[in-house]
C-alpha cells in the first residue's frame, strides 16, 4: 500500500527514543521528512543522523522542553523553516508514581503541562502551517491508562484522559480546516524505560518481570514492539486513513477490558 507520504513533513515530539523514535523511523521509511524533538540534544541529534543515513530523508532536530511555551515555540519555528508541517504527533510523555493523598500540586501541574498543554500549544500553531498546505493530520499518543487506570499512577491516568478528550474536541474544530485528528491508546509497548524498570527490579532476570507484566495485563501475553505501534500510527496519519476523524484507537493486545 502506498501511504502517499513522500516528501511530507512530520513533526514528532519525544522522538529521540522509544515510541517517538519508532514513529519517526516509520515516517522516514515512507519518504517523509521528519522534525524530531526531545530535551537531550545529543540523543535526538544522533537519532536523526541515523535516520538520514538509513532513509535518505531530511531529519531536523529541536532540543526543547515541550512542557513549556518557549519549548513549543522553538518547534513551531523550526517546522515553519522547513516549509511547514503536514503531520504532527504529540508523543512526548512519561509515567508517574504517586498517591493522590501525597502528590503535591506542582507534580500535577508538571504532568498537565507535559501531556496536555504541549499538545494544545503545538496543535494550535502547527494547524496554521497545515492549513496553508491544504490540510494535514494530527495524532495524540495518549495511553490505555486514559480509560483503564493503573493503580500506581493517578496523575498519569488523569492527564492522559484529558489528552484523549482534547484530541476529540480538537478534531471537531480541525476537520473544518481539512486537518484530521485522532488518538492512539497504546497498551504495553517494549521501550527502554520498561527494560530499565525491569532491570532495576530483577537484575539479570529482567525478561521474566516483563513476561509477568504481560501475562497479568495483556491477553496476547507479550509486549508490542515499537514498530508494531509505529506502523499503525503512520497509517492513521496518512491520506489512506482519510475517513478516520476524532477516533481513539487501542493498540493493546486485548488489554482493554471493556468493549
Ligand atoms: P521514552 O521514555 O522511551 O521516550 C520519551 C521521549 O520523550 C524521549 O525522547 C524523551 O527525551 C522525550 N521527552 C520526555 N519529556 C520531554 C519533555 N518535557 N520535552 C520534550 N521531550 C520530552 O517513552 P515511551 O516511548 O515509552 O513513551 C512515549 C509516549 O508513549 C509517552 O507519552 C507515553 O506516555 C506513551 N505510552 C507509552 C507506553 C509504553 O508502554 N511504553 C504505553 C502507553 C503510552 P528527553 O528525555 O531527552 O526529553
Descriptive notes:
The chain is α/β, with parallel strands linked by helices and 259 residues long. It has a single domain (9-187, 224-250), classed as NAD(P)-binding Rossmann-like Domain (Rossmann fold). It has eight helices and seven strands. The protein has helices at residues 18-29, 41-55, 69-81, 105-132, 154-174, 192-202, 206-217, 226-237; strands at residues 9-13, 33-38, 59-63, 87-90, 136-141, 179-186, 248-251. The chain has a seven-stranded parallel sheet with strand order 3-2-1-4-5-6-7, sandwiched between helices. Helix 1 (18-29) crosses helix 8 (226-237) and helix 3 (69-81) runs parallel beside helix 4. The protein is globular and about 50 Å long. The structure holds NADPH dihydro-nicotinamide-adenine-dinucleotide phosphate.
Topology, element by element:
Blueprint (H helix, E strand, L loop, with lengths): L8 E5 L4 H12 L3 E6 L2 H15 L3 E5 L5 H13 L5 E4 L14 H28 L3 E6 L12 H21 L4 E8 L5 H11 L3 H12 L8 H12 L10 E4 L8
Parallel strand pairs: 1-2, 1-4, 2-3, 4-5, 5-6, 6-7
Helix pairs in contact: 1-2, 1-8, 3-4, 4-5, 6-7
The protein binds NADPH dihydro-nicotinamide-adenine-dinucleotide phosphate (NDP).
NADPH dihydro-nicotinamide-adenine-dinucleotide phosphate binds next to helix 1, strand 2 and helix 6.
Amino acid at each position: 500500500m502506498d501511504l502517499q507520504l513522500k516528501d511530507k513533513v512530520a513533526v514528532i515530539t519525544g522522538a529521540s527514543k522509544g515510541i517517538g523514535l519508532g514513529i519517526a523511523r516509520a515516517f522516514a521509511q515512507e519518504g517523509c521528512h521528519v522534525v524530531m524533538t526531545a530535551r537531550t540534544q545529543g540523543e535526538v541529534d544522533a537519532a536523526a543522523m541515523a535516520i538520514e543515513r538509513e532513509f535518505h530523508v531530511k531529519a531536523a532536530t529541536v532540543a526543547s522542553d515541550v512542557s513549556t511555551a518557549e519549548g513549543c515555540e522553538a518547534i513551531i519555528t523550526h517546522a515553519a523553516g522547513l516549509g511547514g508541517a503536514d503531520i504532527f504527533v504529540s508523543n512526548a510523555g512519561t509515567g508517574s508514581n504517586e498517591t493522590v493523598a501525597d502528590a503535591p500540586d506542582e507534580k500535577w501541574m508538571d504532568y498537565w503541562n507535559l501531556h496536555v498543554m504541549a499538545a494544545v500549544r503545538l496543535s494550535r500553531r502547527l494547524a496554521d502551517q497545515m492549513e496553508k498546505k491544504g490540510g494535514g493530520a494530527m495524532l495524540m499518543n495518549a495511553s490505555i491508562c486514559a480509560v483503564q487506570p493503573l493503580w500506581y499512577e493517578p496523575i498519569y491516568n488523569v492527564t492522559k484522559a484529558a489528552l484523549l478528550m482534547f484530541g476529540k474536541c480538537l478534531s471537531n474544530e480541525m476537520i473544518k480546516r481539512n486537518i484530521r485528528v485522532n488518538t492512539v491508546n497504546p497498551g504495553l509497548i517494549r521501550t527502554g524505560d520498561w527494560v530499565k524498570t525491569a532491570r532495576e527490579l530483577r537484575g539479570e532476570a529482567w525478561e521474566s518481570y516483563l513476561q509477568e507484566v504481560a501475562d497479568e495485563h495483556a491477553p496476547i501475553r507479550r509486549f508490542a514492539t515499537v514498530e508494531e505501534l509505529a506502523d499503525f500510527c503512520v497509517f492513521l496519519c496518512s491520506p489512506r486513513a482519510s475517513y478516520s476523524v476524532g477516533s481513539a484507537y487501542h493498540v493493546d493486545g486485548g488489554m482493554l477490558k471493556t468493549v
